[in-house]
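Render this sequence as a predicted structure.
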Amino acid sequence: MASPQIQSVKQYWDSMAKVKEPPTIETMRLNDHYWAGLTSEPGDVDYIEASVDGIPALWAVPKGAVWDRVIICLHGGGYIVGSRYSHRKIFAHIAKAIGCRALIIDYRLTPEHPHPAQSDDAIGAYRSVLEAGVKPAHIILAGDSAGGGLALATLLRARDIGLPLPAGAVTMSAWTDLALSGVSYDSNAEKDLVFHREMVSGLVQMLLGPDGNRADPHISPLAGDLSGLPPVYLQVGGDECLLDDSIAFADRAKSAGVDAKLDVFPEMLHSFQMAAGRAPEADTAVARIAEWACPLLGLPAK
């Protein structure tokens, strides 16, 4: 049974679904702090403003962190909202659990900047971390929702342009399929009131425009050739409409010979990990990420 504490996530999404007049994008961006409010402060973490390849970013540096291991973090928000500030705490929780630094980047948002701006920013950040001397085997890409899909798509783009691949990627409620083919859009429609197919289709239109390619693997990674990718770990809520995005990606990755791990958390909704520090389900998810990531990065488990 879901904990009382995790209800804050459901209440947040339900409140969005019950709004009669959809807010403007500008209002949604101003209200990012409500999303951030789901997450507790992890404590013993310093935040350092940065610019990486011209992209605004934020370093989250836990006390005692190993500096030569880095998580490059890509926030969620449907590519229209979200920022390094809305997600600094959740990624800091993850970095603290692993014991390394996290680089949270503010990739460009739609509709002002359609695809491939987001892909360009993500691969630019990855290339910059490599050029700073961090070994690819010491880097993990991470993201939730749209950021999760972007993390996986960045693996494909790095492979396709000949960059050395990172140690792996971890995602939370990843949006991997811009064709919106998942059956869970229908089977979970009464549980997940926000991420219905019509709403998500609107996000696709803003991201790609009317003539965009929904099968472009550099933004819709489920459509790509997944062979040769490093290990991936996908977490997803059992009650969310994007459930099948993670299930299908994990299945196709395994079929392509990729070391893919999938965790489906029963009764959980989209990006439930945002309740880290407040809800046991979110804390368990963060701990599992660290258990997966530490040996991959050559770090001792805590």
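Summary. The mean pLDDT is 96. Strands lie at 45-52, 55-62, 66-74, 100-105, 139-144, 168-172, 232-237, 260-265.
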